[in-house]
UniProtKB/TrEMBL annotation:
Native source species: Globisporangium ultimum (strain ATCC 200006 / CBS 805.95 / DAOM BR144)
Pfam family, one: Rtf2
InterPro entries: Rtf2, Rtf2_RING-finger
Gene Ontology biological-process annotations: DNA replication termination
CDD domains: RING-like_Rtf2 (cd16653)
Protein name: Uncharacterized protein
Record GO cellular component, one term: nucleus
Recorded family membership: Belongs to the rtf2 family.
Disordered as annotated region, ranges: 187-244
Top-level taxonomic group: Eukaryota
Length: 291
């Protein structure tokens, strides 16, 4: 220790300031978490309800986030948020203003472990209900229901708050890749649905054309039959009267030959002797004897 170059300091008390870089990084990370627990990630204003959280654990004032979404001015760091569907509304538990707060303002805390929400302790958000609790409480109490509201946690995701920069970048990359894949699948599904609809419309159109052609054929057949019937009726109406008389006379002669009784109806022979049983019948000005 006499500065003669012959002594090497190996005791811890002589090296307490040797790792200043690591200590400064740790302090900066803690300060960053405290800042994240108090300010909006996108506007850097103090958090005020309603507060929402994204999958990466960033906290936002809902009004500020909505303004950026409507104006389409989302920074690249928050490009994983495309709509309010990508965030969850947080349900914080407040402690009274006369508690351990240094400035008298209301603070958020975990109602199970009673830990303050100040960025120094890890907290999570239950995605299904939005309740904010500490990781310690979930580790100590194993349950399938939310420790705050009692709702089922089946299918729920636990969104970790205050991620480190390294974990933040990795998780953001995973989310963007997943969203791109979902968008591609949705586009393909929509394309397949459109193709099926076009095929169905084509089939319906072909069926309609066939039905229309069938109806036209039926109408044409009906018209042809009607035209043919009218033609036959017209032909019958134009048959000469002489032909009708001739046909009638021929039919009568044939019947006379077959039946004597029928022939007697047309007999005008007055030489025949009439009997008391003879029955006279006058038809069309002619008298007929029926015996």
């Amino acid at each position: 220790m006499g500065n003669d170059g012959g002594v090497i300091a190996v005791k811890r008390k002589f090296m307490r300031h040797g790792n200043t870089k690591a200590r400064s990084e740790k302090v900066s990370q803690e300060a960053l978490r405290v800042q994240k627990a108090q300010t909006c990630a996108i506007s850097e204003e103090s958090l005020r309800e309603p507060i929402v959280v994204c999958e990466l654990g960033n906290l936002y004032n809902k009004q500020a986030l909505l303004e950026h979404l409507l104006a389409k001015t989302m920074p690249e760091k928050f490009q994983h948020i495309m709509s309010l569907k990508d965030v969850v509304t947080c349900r914080f538990s407040k402690q009274k203003a006369d508690s351990t707060s240094s400035n008298g303002a209301s603070l958020f805390y975990c109602p199970v472990s009673m830990l303050e929400f100040n960025g120094k302790q890890p907290f999570v958000v239950v995605s299904t209900c939005g309740c904010v609790v500490s990781e310690r409480s979930l580790k100590e109490v194993q349950t399938k229901e939310c420790l705050v509201c009692g709702k089922s946690m089946d299918g729920a995701k636990l969104i970790a708050l205050f991620l480190s920069d390294e974990n933040y970048e990795l998780k953001q990359k995973e989310i963007l890749e997943r969203k791109a894949q979902e968008k591609l699948l949705k586009k393909e599904s929509k394309k397949n649905k459109s193709s099926k609809k076009n095929a169905a419309d084509t089939a319906d159109g072909a069926t309609a054309d066939a039905e229309e052609n069938g109806e036209e054929t039926a109408k044409k057949t009906k018209k042809d039959k009607k035209r043919k019937a009218e033609g036959q009726h017209s032909s019958a109406a134009h048959v000469p009267a002489s032909k009708i008389v001739k046909d009638a006379t021929s039919a009568i002669q044939k019947e006379k030959a077959k039946s004597a009784v029928f022939a007697s109806l047309f007999s005008k022979d007055k030489s025949e002797k009439k009997s008391a049983n003879d029955l006279l019948m006058t038809v069309g000005g002619m008298r007929y004897t029926l015996s």
